[in-house]
């Protein structure tokens, strides 16, 4: 009896096992048949959805960290081929910026090619998820954050230069400089043409500006001319801005083979006595112009007591401002003349309306003049059409006196030590404060510190032709050409080429 019961139990188990195997095979057959005969579905936009609360733990973290929010895979059908996409979302925070959390989505896609083999393709995209303060960039009705893969289009291609402070760096000796020869440029006026005036040392021509955290492109005259094709590039300011304007003319002139195709529209030769110039580059239908204004505001006259005296209308824009309108690129500056005796003293000089201030501090007057200029820019300049730059103050290097009291810089043949402390001018601080209050975006070309190191770059006694040199009067304010202003224009070229927003320490 025992042996019969044992045999019966074994038969039952075998039957159950056989039924299970048969059912499994049948299910696999029908499932495979359904999978390969199902018509291809339309591609549908795929969303990755994350609940906001699940990320809050990480978003409130104060220290910089990297974390993984999601790791998984999903399958979609497209054109009859199965696509398996392994998707990883990596989010990193940066406590130093204190601004936002940026996420990047990496997709590894396996596609079946015509031969039936699988090919892996890797695509990386970028998406901003939320701010570190906890307020989401996009809110859905159910308080969750959605990242749409179809909206994440751009590849991660961040270079250091996109976030680089190009004004923080050092001067590097480079044998390939200067970018042009003084003899090849007919636009350098006597005061800046140091080599033609007898300066024999050459090392001051070989220094190239090198930012610490990135590289800037070498100036390319052909690319620059293409950037300004059909446009007006206008410099507005004092003689230091004329220094930079002449530098740019020389840089661009090197790309023109026929000298007749670059000319001043009124046929005038550049001299320090004249103030307005417009040079046309015929093949590129563009002009590079300069308009003189010492203060950006109106120099006038008014009666004080029994006398009619010169005044500065700090509430009225310069009378030549109509010529600035319609420009595609504007480069402004003012600073040099604000250090003269009359402006520094501020006695019966600054005027607002009909009132001539008996005494007004030069910093207060400078700020009010800049506010007048800023109001004019906001009123008359269209941000979509015109790019606006403001060049910061450039340093003078008089030693042992001022320009009219024996100041000199002749003995200097190389840059100063970059480790020395440099005082940041109050005028630059005022400029930065005013620019922040403007509606129109303005890029500050902050060349002060990099120029401070170049005591060797001034004309000194070589601002006049041989035979007219007066060693008792030296020019330690303007710059030899070729020279330091070429570096300013390389930075201008960098901004125009990259369309980069100004670096902010904030």
UniProtKB/TrEMBL annotation:
Trichome birefringence-like C-terminal domain sequence ranges: 216-493
Family affiliation: Belongs to the PC-esterase family. TBL subfamily.
Subcellular location: Membrane
Keyword Acetylation in annotation: no
Keywords: Membrane, Signal-anchor, Transmembrane, Transmembrane helix
Membrane topology annotation: Single-pass membrane protein
Major location category of this protein: membrane
Domain Trichome birefringence-like N-terminal: 163-215
Annotated Gene Ontology cellular component terms: Golgi apparatus; membrane
Domain of life from the UniProt record: Eukaryota
Entry protein name: Protein trichome birefringence-like protein 6
Transmembrane regions: 12-36
InterPro entries in alphabetical order: TBL, TBL_C, TBL_N
Gene Ontology terms for molecular function: O-acetyltransferase activity
């Amino acid at each position: 009896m025992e042996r019969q019961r044992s045999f019966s139990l074994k038969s039952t188990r075998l039957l159950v096992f056989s039924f299970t195997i048969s059912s499994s095979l049948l299910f696999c057959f029908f499932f495979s048949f359904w999978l390969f005969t199902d018509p291809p579905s339309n591609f549908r936009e795929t969303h990755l959805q994350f609940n906001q609360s699940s990320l809050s733990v990480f978003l409130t973290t104060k220290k910089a960290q990297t974390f993984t929010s999601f790791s998984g895979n999903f399958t979609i059908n497209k054109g009859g081929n199965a696509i398996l996409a392994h998707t990883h979302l990596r989010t990193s925070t940066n406590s130093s910026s204190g601004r936002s959390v940026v996420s990047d989505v990496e997709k590894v896609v396996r596609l079946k090619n015509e031969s039936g083999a699988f090919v892996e393709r890797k695509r990386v995209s970028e998406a901003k998820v939320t701010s570190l303060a906890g307020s989401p960039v996009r809110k859905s009705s159910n308080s969750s954050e959605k990242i749409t893969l179809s909206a994440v289009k751009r590849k991660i291609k961040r270079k250091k230069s996109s976030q680089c402070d190009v004004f923080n760096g050092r001067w590097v000796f480079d044998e390939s400089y200067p970018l042009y020869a003084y003899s090849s440029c007919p636009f350098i006026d006597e005061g800046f043409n140091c080599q033609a005036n007898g300066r024999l040392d050459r090392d001051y021509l070989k220094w190239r500006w090198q930012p610490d955290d990135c590289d800037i492109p070498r100036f390319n005259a052909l690319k620059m001319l293409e950037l300004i094709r059909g446009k007006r590039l206008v410099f507005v300011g004092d003689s230091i801005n004329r220094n930079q304007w002449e530098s740019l003319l020389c840089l661009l002139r090197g790309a023109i083979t026929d000298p007749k195709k670059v000319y001043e529209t009124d046929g005038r030769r550049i001299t320090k006595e004249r103030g307005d110039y417009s040079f046309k580059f015929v093949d590129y239908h563009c002009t590079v112009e300069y308009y003189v204004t010492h203060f950006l505001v109106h120099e006038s006259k008014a009666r004080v007591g029994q006398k009619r005296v010169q005044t500065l209308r700090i509430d009225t824009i310069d009378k030549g401002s109509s010529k600035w309108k319609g420009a595609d690129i504007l480069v402004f500056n003012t600073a040099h003349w604000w250090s003269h005796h009359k402006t520094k003293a501020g006695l019966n000089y600054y005027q607002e309306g009909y009132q001539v201030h008996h005494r007004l501090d030069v910093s207060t007057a400078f700020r009010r003049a800049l506010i007048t200029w800023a109001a004019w820019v906001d009123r008359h300049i269209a941000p979509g059409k015109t790019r606006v730059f403001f060049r910061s103050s450039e340093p003078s290097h008089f030693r042992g006196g001022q320009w009219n009291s024996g100041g000199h810089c002749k003995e200097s043949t190389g840059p100063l030590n970059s480790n020395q402390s440099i005082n940041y001018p109050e005028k630059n601080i005022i400029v930065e404060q005013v620019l922040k209050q403007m509606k129109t975006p303005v890029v500050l070309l902050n060349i002060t510190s990099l120029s401070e190191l170049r005591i060797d770059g001034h004309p000194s006694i070589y601002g006049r032709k041989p035979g007219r040199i007066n060693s008792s009067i030296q020019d330690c304010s303007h710059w030899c050409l070729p020279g330091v202003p070429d570096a300013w224009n390389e930075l201008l070229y960098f901004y125009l080429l990259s369309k980069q927003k100004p670096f902010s320490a904030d």
